[in-house]
From TrEMBL:
Keyword Iron tagged: no
Pfam families noted in UniProt: ABC_membrane, ABC_tran, ABCC10_N
InterPro entries reported in the protein's UniProt record: ABC1_TM_dom (IPR011527), ABC1_TM_sf (IPR036640), ABC_transporter-like_ATP-bd (IPR003439), ABC_transporter_C-like (IPR050173), ABCC10-like_N (IPR056228), ABCC_6TM_D1 (IPR044746), P-loop_NTPase (IPR027417)
One MF term in the entry's GO annotations: ABC-type transporter activity
Keyword field: ATP-binding, Membrane, Nucleotide-binding, Transmembrane, Transmembrane helix, Transport
Subcellular localization(s) per the UniProt record: Membrane
Protein name as it appears in the record: ABC transmembrane type-1 domain-containing protein
Topology in membrane: Multi-pass membrane protein
Source organism: Arundo donax
Residue span, ABC transmembrane type-1 domain: 304-584
Coiled-coil region: none
CC per GO annotation: membrane
Length: 714
């Protein structure tokens, strides 16, 4: 049987079987003619469709071409580069024919390569255009066609390599053709299913009669792309590109910053924390739930994911010395197989890529988790401050509460970033010691002894740091309390010329705070010096042990030891920072827990507003007391009736109880006498939602001396 190229095939064989073998052999003429025909058909049909659809879109080149997904970028770049390689190879083969007297390559060889290169370049251009301009059906159809076409070419090249036991450049390019087509197919399935059918309601097709929308709808439409980002976008931080693009074009403004997603907002985080805390209180009726474990239960999934990335980073980092030792052994002629050098170089490249990726995700997830924890702790402190009882207010002043939000909540928010350092440091040290034992043998014991002695010497310093940190926070609370009281009563200080006296008092408090701060930082400096000098001691002790034990040192174990020394240095030098952060977070957790467990006002002290009642405020024969001593009430036998819409002024001498009466109306002073009829129909805002409106609004005015203090309860 003769083929169309004039060569004899299928001699004394079944024609159908032989023809199929020739069709799936990338070196045969029949396969080349089939591939050329398919490529020509793809180029003609695709070019005609692009010539019809692109002019109809009426978009500029910048609006048409966009790469908004890492999958799309990888697929377009890979297929475009393959197309350029195909074209270069085909032109080189064609040039070789012109430079030689006889044809080195038959026409079907360079024709098939040129046709594949041209089709790939055209397909890459088509998939770089926005999907809404070409249509969803167009993109899906051509992604499937490209995948089938690439699978046929890849299978043909595999058959050729297996049959002839040879590898050439065209076969390698044909095998890479299939991953490029699969990338575009996965992008089409993932992206179009996620975004749906993109209509023409975009910035390019805005109607002339634009309608105004409310602020909530505008806020929901301007949510950060991270809230809807896919897996590949999150892993590659592709969702940051729109904001980066705006920042490259012009300075960023407040309106350019997207809003947080629903799950990341402080209000939703606080509600989740409150729900977990209440469920733990119900499960532990006789105990107080731990705030720390409540935070862990709220964000256990994020903690586990970030912990996985932390472990992956440690493992990939620890693989470096092992790969380096294997590479040195291969360079010395101790390789296991022929292509071991290429395999080791590829593994080292992928390990470094995974190390960088896992480290970036670890840092990002823990920083995001820290901001979430800080936001709902600030909200919890704010809500708790509104419900504090009088006895609790005597313990927790306004300056201390301000310190809880600005200092303690901030330090707890920084703790998730260092949380995984507490266990990854030990894992990294253990792996480094195992690698050292593999490199220098029993000399590793000297390194272990130096590390253990360093940690043991740090124990008393860590206890002193914890003590000084607690004293520092107490001194800071006293100083902030004095400063806030001075600023609030500045009118009285100016009136009586007490500025110098209060200035000396505050300076004295600052001196006490400075004393504890200097003591804490001095111990921290000792700690840092101890750990920063330990890597030098580790290396010196290890080499001395190698000399004493007469362990031979060659290029393999010396370079491995030097590379492993970095694995030992980083965790040892981070131990002081980790200890300091853990101590600060422990003190902050203790202080915030004590504040959140403080006694609250009795919620049943007042009755809420009921529509239709004639009187707004009714107090009949009630006694109120600020102190816990019920035998000495502050207000005794109080009777007060305020009708709906009536304005009432409470007048009296200084210290007669005007402010106490107002606080009693608001429900902030416990009642001490039963039975007592007490009804308050004033609307109280007990939620963080500013859009919640009350049925009615009342104002109470208290005349305290010359000060007129409005108390708007709504």
């Amino acid at each position: 049987m003769m083929n169309v190229c004039g060569t004899l095939i299928c001699f004394k064989q079944d024609v159908v079987t032989c023809a199929l073998k020739e069709m799936f052999n990338s070196a045969s003429c029949i396969n080349h003619l089939l591939v050329i025909g398919i490529a020509a058909l793809i180029v003609i049909i695709l070019a005609l469709q692009l010539l019809i659809k692109i002019p109809k879109s009426r978009g500029s080149a910048r609006q048409l071409v966009v790469l908004n997904s890492p999958l799309q970028l990888a697929g377009v770049v890979l297929n475009g580069c393959l197309g350029l390689f195909y074209l270069g190879l085909g032109l080189w083969m064609l040039g070789s024919n012109f430079n030689q007297d006889a044809s080195v390559y038959l026409p079907h060889w360079w024709l098939v390569i040129l046709s594949q290169g041209l089709s790939l370049i055209l397909i890459s251009f088509a998939f770089s255009i926005r999907a809404r301009f070409l249509g969803t059906t167009f993109v899906r159809f051509w992604s499937v066609v490209l995948t089938v076409y690439a699978a046929f070419i890849c299978c043909s090249s595999v058959v050729y390599m297996v049959t002839n036991k040879a590898i050439n450049v065209k076969a390698c390019l044909d095998i890479l053709f299939l991953p490029g087509a699969l990338l575009l197919l996965v992008y089409v399935i993932w992206h179009i299913r996620e975004n749906g059918h993109e209509g023409t309601e975009s910035a390019l097709y805005k109607p002339l009669n634009t309608e105004t929308v409310d602020d909530k709808a505008d806020s929901e439409s301007h949510v950060t792309p991270y809230a809807k980002a896919g897996f590949f976008s999150v892993m590659s931080f592709w969702w940051l590109n729109p904001l980066m693009k705006i920042g490259y074009e012009k300075p960023l403004e407040e309106k350019d910053m997207p809003h947080l997603g629903t799950a990341d907002r402080a209000y939703n985080q606080y509600l989740m924390f409150l729900e977990k805390l209440n469920s733990k209180k119900q499960s532990q009726p006789h105990g107080t739930p731990s705030v720390f474990w409540t935070i862990i239960s709220c964000h256990k999934s994020a903690i586990l994911v970030s912990g996985f990335f932390a472990l992956l980073k440690v493992l990939t980092l620890s693989s470096g010395p092992l790969l380096l030792r294997a590479f040195i052994n291969f360079s010395l002629g101790k390789g296991s197989f022929k292509y071991e050098g290429f395999v080791l170089a590829a593994i080292m490249f992928f390990c470094k890529c995974f190390e960088s990726l896992s480290q970036r995700q670890w840092y990002f997830l823990t920083r995001k988790l820290g901001l979430q924890v800080r936001s709902f702790l600030s909200a919890a402190i704010y809500k708790k401050q509104q419900k504090l009882s009088n006895s609790a207010k005597m313990i927790h002043s306004s300056g201390e509460i301000m310190n809880y939000v600005t200092v303690d909540a901030y330090r707890i928010g920084e703790f998730p970033y260092w949380f995984h350092q507490t266990w990854t440091t030990g894992v990294q040290l253990c792996l480094a010691l195992v690698i050292l034992y593999n490199a220098v043998g029993l000399a590793m014991i000297a390194s272990l002894v130096v590390i253990v002695l360093t940690v043991l010497c740090n124990v008393p310093l860590a206890k002193l740091q914890h003590k000084f940190q607690s004293k520092l926070m107490e001194a800071q609370d006293v100083r902030l309390k004095a400063m806030s009281e001075s600023l609030i009563h500045m009118k009285v200080l100016k009136l009586y010329a007490w500025e110098t006296h209060f200035k000396k008092v505050i300076e004295g408090l600052r001196e006490i705070e400075y004393k504890w701060l200097s003591a804490f930082q001095l111990r921290r400096a000792y700690n840092s010096f101890l750990f920063w000098s330990s890597p030098v001691l580790v290396s010196a002790a290890t080499f001395l042990a190698c000399y004493l034990l007469k362990i031979p040192l060659d290029a393999s174990n010396v370079f491995t030891f030097v590379a492993t020394l970095r694995l030992v240095q980083d965790p040892i030098r981070q131990i002081p920072d980790v200890i300091g952060v853990v101590i600060q977070a422990k003190v902050a957790f203790t202080r915030i827990t004590q504040f959140l467990d403080a006694p609250e006002l009795n919620g049943q002290v007042r009755k809420k507003y009921r529509v239709g009642t004639e009187y707004s405020i009714v107090i009949n024969s009630c006694s109120f007391s600020w102190d816990e001593n019920l035998s000495k009430p502050t207000l005794k036998n109080i009777n007060l009736v305020v009708k709906d819409g009536e304005k009432v002024a409470v007048c009296g001498e200084v210290g007669s109880g005007k402010s106490t009466l107002l606080a009693a109306v608001l429900g902030e002073v416990p009642k001490t006498k039963d039975p007592c009829l007490w009804q308050n129909s004033i609307c109280f805002s007990e939620c963080m939602d500013p859009n919640r409106n009350c049925a009615r609004q009342y104002s109470i005015w208290v005349f305290d001396g010359q000060a007129e203090i409005p108390r708007n309860t709504c």
